[in-house]
Amino acid sequence: MRGALALLAALTGGPALAECRLALALGLDVSGSVDAREYRLQLDGVAGALETPAVHQALFSMPGAYVDIAVYQWGAPWQQRLLLDWTTLRSAADTAVVAGQLRTASHSFSDPSTAIGSAIEFGVALLSDRPDCWAHTIDISGDGPSNSGPPPGSLTLPAPPYITVNGLVVNPLARDNIGKDLSRAKTLRNHYETQVIRGPGAFVEVAESFQDFERAMTRKLIREVQPAVVGSAERP
Predict the structure, then answer these.
(1) I want to staple 71 with a disulfide (CB 3.0 to 4.6 A). Which of 14, 25, 36, 84 is the partner?
(2) Radius of gyration of the chain measured on its C-alpha atoms
(3) What span, in angstroms and rounded, lies between the C-alpha atoms of 222 and 200?
(4) In what helix (H) or strand (E) does residue 235 lie, and over which residues does it extend?
(5) pTM score of the predicted model
(6) Helix 213-225 with 53-60: angle, nearest 10 deg
(7) Are 153 and 167 in contact (CB under 8 A)?
(8) Residue ranges of the alpha helices (H) in 61-177?
(9) What is the pLDDT of residues 149-159, one digit of tens each?
């Protein structure tokens, strides 16, 4: 009920309540299959997406009900690293600070294995630090299927609070995906649709290449953070 009242106040011009409407944990695949150029395209792509006017409109169209964001990178089952701890986005100045931090970030992992299940578990642990947010989303970006660690489709996520896991598939038809184990799925996108995403409103966005990453991330962020799609705002 508290979230619904804050939503009504924001939409009708009533007194704003300083509440978190969405906790968004962005997980980026930087395993050994991602080279230095692709690493930069991902980090700079997230930074660029956060600075676009359309994303700003989605982020800041509900004064008093803000979005908290954290960014981490992942690879093998034992390889996760927090790049940006929980940060509140209330203004363009906040997104500029986050973008600056991401553009100077470095360090990828040499292990070629891809542990999506472990990446999701790391995101769940991050979200446990934001229990009062109305909605909780993990955003997994990757260029290959899970081939190490716990199978993502076998994970049981805690509820409530309910968690949505969305996906951003990179290079789904690229030559380097031909040799990857997709025995349980028709395509890399299908692997994400059947094994990775789950929860209220879960979806998969596609980047045709790493060069397309910023545009895909922009589309996905708009869809994730705009108030109209934060369904948990109506839960008590």
Answers:
(1) 84
(2) 17
(3) 16
(4) none
(5) 0.85
(6) 20
(7) no
(8) 92-103, 116-127
(9) 999 999 998 87
